[in-house]
Please model this.
Amino acid sequence: MPLTNFGAILNFAEALERQDMAFYDEAAAAADSQALGNLFSALARENKKHIALVQRTRRENVTEMILEPIRDFTRTAYQTEPEDMAGMDSAAAVSLETRALRYYRDAAEKIQALPEVSRALKTLAKKRSRRLERLESEA
Model:
């Protein structure tokens, strides 16, 4: 399904954050070690903050949301099916973070005509990059 405007990009970002938050909540409960469980719990809390950032960005820029059409951008490359997350380990988490990082970088590039929105997406990409580094150091 194409992401053709500001609203679609931010709606998908929120859905992505909610899906990842659910993964980390479940992964924290099923973690093999206390350290990994604590890391996953912290990441779930961060996802909640990311959702708030996406929602705030949408509210603050709602007057511009219909002005800029987006072309050649679809959600297919960034979707993960629930069964793909069944492993609930750090490798699955690295996969989720890599996917989110790609989405935020690509979306920021596509929506450059709205600098505030692009900046928010770049901020989320930086946060996901740091999370990816944390996960890779744990693995």
User: Anything to note?
Assistant: Residues 1-67+108-139 form one domain. The longest helix spans residues 34-60. The two ends are 34 Å apart (CA to CA).
